[in-house]
Amino acid sequence: MDNQNISDLIEEYIKEILVEKDKIEIKRAEIASQFSCVPSQINYVIKTRFTVAQGYNVESKRGGGGYIRIKKITLNHHGDILTELENVVGNKLTQHDATAILQQLYNYDIINKREGALLHSLMSSEILQADFREKEDMIRANMIKIIIERLRYEEKE
Protein backbone atom coordinates (compact mmCIF):
# COMPACT_ATOMS: atom_id res chain seq x y z
CA MET A 1 0.00 0.00 0.00
CA ASP A 2 2.80 2.36 -1.00
CA ASN A 3 3.18 4.14 2.35
CA GLN A 4 -0.41 5.37 2.65
CA ASN A 5 -2.21 5.24 5.97
CA ILE A 6 -5.85 4.23 6.37
CA SER A 7 -7.03 7.86 6.41
CA ASP A 8 -5.36 8.50 3.06
CA LEU A 9 -6.98 5.41 1.57
CA ILE A 10 -10.44 6.37 2.81
CA GLU A 11 -10.01 9.91 1.49
CA GLU A 12 -8.83 8.63 -1.87
CA TYR A 13 -11.77 6.21 -2.09
CA ILE A 14 -14.35 8.92 -1.36
CA LYS A 15 -12.72 11.37 -3.78
CA GLU A 16 -12.77 8.73 -6.54
CA ILE A 17 -16.53 8.43 -6.08
CA LEU A 18 -16.85 12.23 -6.14
CA VAL A 19 -15.10 12.36 -9.52
CA GLU A 20 -18.16 10.68 -11.01
CA LYS A 21 -20.79 12.51 -8.94
CA ASP A 22 -20.99 15.96 -7.34
CA LYS A 23 -22.97 14.58 -4.38
CA ILE A 24 -22.78 11.25 -2.59
CA GLU A 25 -24.30 9.61 0.45
CA ILE A 26 -22.27 7.10 2.37
CA LYS A 27 -22.91 5.03 5.47
CA ARG A 28 -20.22 5.27 8.12
CA ALA A 29 -20.54 1.61 9.15
CA GLU A 30 -20.34 0.32 5.57
CA ILE A 31 -17.18 2.27 4.76
CA ALA A 32 -15.64 1.31 8.11
CA SER A 33 -16.37 -2.35 7.37
CA GLN A 34 -14.89 -2.04 3.89
CA PHE A 35 -11.64 -0.61 5.29
CA SER A 36 -11.64 -2.74 8.46
CA CYS A 37 -11.59 0.26 10.75
CA VAL A 38 -13.83 1.84 13.36
CA PRO A 39 -16.57 4.28 12.26
CA SER A 40 -14.82 7.10 14.17
CA GLN A 41 -11.96 6.80 11.64
CA ILE A 42 -14.46 7.67 8.91
CA ASN A 43 -15.63 10.65 10.99
CA TYR A 44 -12.03 11.83 11.34
CA VAL A 45 -11.39 11.65 7.59
CA ILE A 46 -14.62 13.48 6.78
CA LYS A 47 -14.03 16.18 9.40
CA THR A 48 -10.43 16.90 8.40
CA ARG A 49 -10.35 16.29 4.66
CA PHE A 50 -13.78 17.29 3.40
CA THR A 51 -14.23 20.85 4.68
CA VAL A 52 -15.75 23.94 3.09
CA ALA A 53 -12.25 25.36 2.61
CA GLN A 54 -11.35 22.22 0.64
CA GLY A 55 -14.45 22.52 -1.55
CA TYR A 56 -16.94 20.23 0.19
CA ASN A 57 -20.13 20.58 2.20
CA VAL A 58 -20.86 17.72 4.60
CA GLU A 59 -24.19 16.88 6.21
CA SER A 60 -24.66 13.92 8.47
CA LYS A 61 -27.42 12.11 10.25
CA ARG A 62 -26.64 9.66 13.02
CA GLY A 63 -28.58 6.58 13.96
CA GLY A 64 -29.75 3.42 12.24
CA GLY A 65 -30.68 5.11 8.98
CA GLY A 66 -27.81 7.55 9.32
CA TYR A 67 -25.71 8.78 6.46
CA ILE A 68 -22.98 11.21 5.52
CA ARG A 69 -23.82 13.36 2.51
CA ILE A 70 -20.85 15.02 0.80
CA LYS A 71 -21.33 17.65 -1.92
CA LYS A 72 -18.72 19.38 -4.03
CA ILE A 73 -19.00 23.14 -3.73
CA THR A 74 -17.42 26.19 -5.30
CA LEU A 75 -16.28 29.02 -3.06
CA ASN A 76 -17.73 32.34 -4.10
CA HIS A 77 -15.87 35.53 -4.87
CA HIS A 78 -16.88 37.33 -1.65
CA GLY A 79 -14.46 35.41 0.58
CA ASP A 80 -12.47 38.39 1.88
CA ILE A 81 -15.57 40.39 2.80
CA LEU A 82 -17.13 37.39 4.54
CA THR A 83 -13.92 36.73 6.47
CA GLU A 84 -13.80 40.33 7.67
CA LEU A 85 -17.44 40.22 8.77
CA GLU A 86 -16.92 36.89 10.50
CA ASN A 87 -13.96 38.32 12.42
CA VAL A 88 -16.22 41.08 13.75
CA VAL A 89 -18.79 38.66 15.17
CA GLY A 90 -17.00 37.15 18.17
CA ASN A 91 -18.95 35.10 20.71
CA LYS A 92 -21.74 37.60 21.30
CA LEU A 93 -23.64 39.88 18.97
CA THR A 94 -26.27 42.47 19.78
CA GLN A 95 -29.33 42.87 17.61
CA HIS A 96 -27.99 46.24 16.47
CA ASP A 97 -24.64 44.73 15.41
CA ALA A 98 -26.35 41.83 13.66
CA THR A 99 -28.41 44.34 11.69
CA ALA A 100 -25.21 46.17 10.73
CA ILE A 101 -23.64 42.94 9.45
CA LEU A 102 -26.75 42.07 7.46
CA GLN A 103 -26.66 45.58 5.99
CA GLN A 104 -23.06 45.01 4.89
CA LEU A 105 -24.03 41.70 3.28
CA TYR A 106 -26.73 43.59 1.39
CA ASN A 107 -24.40 46.48 0.47
CA TYR A 108 -21.93 44.04 -1.10
CA ASP A 109 -24.72 42.25 -3.02
CA ILE A 110 -24.14 39.03 -1.10
CA ILE A 111 -27.78 38.88 -0.02
CA ASN A 112 -30.79 40.57 -1.56
CA LYS A 113 -33.30 42.83 0.18
CA ARG A 114 -35.81 40.06 0.85
CA GLU A 115 -33.17 37.71 2.30
CA GLY A 116 -31.90 40.56 4.46
CA ALA A 117 -35.37 41.28 5.78
CA LEU A 118 -35.99 37.61 6.58
CA LEU A 119 -32.66 37.22 8.34
CA HIS A 120 -33.22 40.47 10.25
CA SER A 121 -36.52 39.08 11.52
CA LEU A 122 -34.79 35.95 12.78
CA MET A 123 -32.21 38.00 14.69
CA SER A 124 -34.82 39.86 16.73
CA SER A 125 -35.15 39.52 20.49
CA GLU A 126 -38.80 38.59 19.96
CA ILE A 127 -37.79 35.47 18.04
CA LEU A 128 -34.79 34.44 20.15
CA GLN A 129 -36.52 35.04 23.50
CA ALA A 130 -33.57 33.86 25.57
CA ASP A 131 -33.74 33.97 29.35
CA PHE A 132 -30.76 36.31 29.54
CA ARG A 133 -29.52 39.00 27.15
CA GLU A 134 -26.07 37.39 27.12
CA LYS A 135 -27.49 34.05 25.98
CA GLU A 136 -29.52 35.79 23.28
CA ASP A 137 -26.39 37.58 22.03
CA MET A 138 -24.50 34.27 21.94
CA ILE A 139 -27.27 32.59 19.94
CA ARG A 140 -27.37 35.53 17.53
CA ALA A 141 -23.57 35.38 17.04
CA ASN A 142 -23.77 31.66 16.28
CA MET A 143 -26.57 32.26 13.80
CA ILE A 144 -24.60 34.94 11.96
CA LYS A 145 -21.50 32.72 11.88
CA ILE A 146 -23.53 29.89 10.33
CA ILE A 147 -25.05 32.27 7.78
CA ILE A 148 -21.63 33.63 6.83
CA GLU A 149 -20.21 30.11 6.53
CA ARG A 150 -23.06 29.11 4.22
CA LEU A 151 -22.60 32.24 2.12
CA ARG A 152 -18.97 31.27 1.49
CA TYR A 153 -19.89 28.66 -1.06
CA GLU A 154 -22.25 27.93 -3.87
CA GLU A 155 -23.37 24.34 -4.38
CA LYS A 156 -22.78 22.84 -7.78
CA GLU A 157 -26.01 22.10 -9.60
From TrEMBL:
The keyword Transcription applies. It comes from the Bacteria. Residues 78-148 form the CtsR C-terminal dimerization domain. Residues 5-73 form the CtsR N-terminal HTH domain. The keyword Transcription applies. Keywords: DNA-binding, Repressor, Transcription, Transcription regulation. Gene3D superfamilies: Transcriptional regulator CtsR, C-terminal domain, Transcriptional regulator CtsR, winged HTH domain. GO terms for biological process: regulation of DNA-templated transcription. GO terms for molecular function: DNA binding. Belongs to the CtsR family. This is Transcriptional regulator CtsR.
